[in-house]
Specification:
By secondary structure, the chain is an alpha+beta fold. The chain contains two helices and four strands; from the N terminus they run βαββαβ. A two-stranded antiparallel ribbon has the order 1-4. Strands 2-3 form a two-stranded antiparallel sheet. The chain starts with a strand and ends with a strand. The model has no long low-confidence stretch (mean pLDDT 96).
Length: 56
């Protein structure tokens, strides 16, 4: 199951730089994860200072 970014996202961009496959990009108002590219490693969730990333 891919990871998703909730509305708790503060748009800091920390997760984008941590993703080893480039599945995270800046969306409209917050960052988003491309489920088709996500490899479910959880690196982004561990890096998120707002705790806004969790598995779907």
């Amino acid at each position: 199951m891919a990871y998703v970014i909730s509305d708790a996202c503060i748009s800091c961009g920390t997760c984008e730089g941590e993703c080893p496959v480039g599945a995270i990009s800046e969306g409209d108002g917050q960052f988003v994860i491309d489920a088709g590219t996500c490899i479910d490693c959880g690196t982004c969730a561990g890096a998120c200072p707002a705790g806004a990333i969790d598995q779907e």
